[in-house]
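Protocol step 6 of 9: fold each sequence in the batch and record its structure tokens directly after the sequence line. For illustration, a two-sequence batch is reproduced in full.

Sequence one:
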Amino acid sequence: MTTRYAALLRGINVSGHKKVPMAQLRTLLAELGHSDVTTYLQSGNAAFTSASGADEDTLATALEAAIEEHFGFRVDCLVRGGPYLRAVADACPFPAAGLEGRQLHVTYLSGPADPDRFAGLDQEAFLPEAFRLGDRAVYLYTPEGLGRSKLAEALSRPALVKGVTATTRNWNTVRKLVELTRD
């Protein structure tokens, strides 16, 4: 049985650091035995088909090891199946259809979005910005975009993300990943 997945690489190709050309990422994924590999943007999004039967964490660990061996630096990766990505998009608690892609983001997490981690964050202090927790995801509404968001800055504090791999994608990318991982 084959499954479509998306690989989400964290913190690559930013200001000339951790350069991972997308052509080389496609080659690495193919060398790991995956097929129908495609990439989206330069920020570390790849879709692929796997017949390995491995779980998401095993696929991510193999990709991290391949990147480190090939490029000489470590990159945190999350791998998520197409049905999961669709479920995250469908569960969006914000009116996605009425917002620009730069106003809505999903931070994908390596583990559950534990409400206790976020309990001390006073959401009202950041209005009109807002966030909601999902399943291994945090939805973030930033009317002025992520770059100017005080809430996004607060959500990335070490106490909130300690021990969790987190990588954020804007809503345009969320939708594109859903499209790229359709069976």
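Sequence two, same batch, same settings:
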Amino acid sequence: MRSDTDRQTLETASEADAVSVAEVRRTLRGVNPQKAAGPDNIPGRVLRECADQLADVLTDIINISLSCTIVPICFKTTTIVPMPKKSTVSCLSVYGPIAHTSIVMKCFERLVIRHVKTHLPPSLDPLQFAYRSNRSADDAISTTLHLALTHLDKKGTYMRMLFIDFSSVFNTIVPRAPDWKVDLTGLEYLPLQLDPGFLDW
């Protein structure tokens, strides 16, 4: 039984629903059943097989989460599991940390990133590799080397290269800044016309 506060929150969330039941159902049906369960111990097989039953509830949860700009703590919890990098374990340094997060949260992130992508310009820089389908770090390295070697084939040419680690770049972003922009290409800034709630989330 939902209280008046719950109903009001749901009504507010439904006014600007970012995620539909159909989208949530489709995402749940696409979960890999072999995926290891996160700290909530909900296996991927359950989410996939019970997509029809869980879609309505999870849609309410994610839309309320987005409208309140709060991610439930249970979805942010991560279990760190040591996994050997090699088949033969000779010392502790062979182990590397693997983070197991909630599969439900991964589904939520997929749904949100789809919405974010709809706000990106239709044509991105051809050298944009991050957050693009069928693009990887290997593609970026191969393309960079190809461009560099092609340039150096010309007589009397040289080149300088700068490598920057952006792994924690989003840790310092101030989402409420009115001119908040994301540097997607490293060359030009593309403004994201997103709802402030998404940025806060």
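Proceed to step 7 once all outputs are recorded. Observation for sequence two: Residues 30 and 48 are 7 Å apart (CA to CA).
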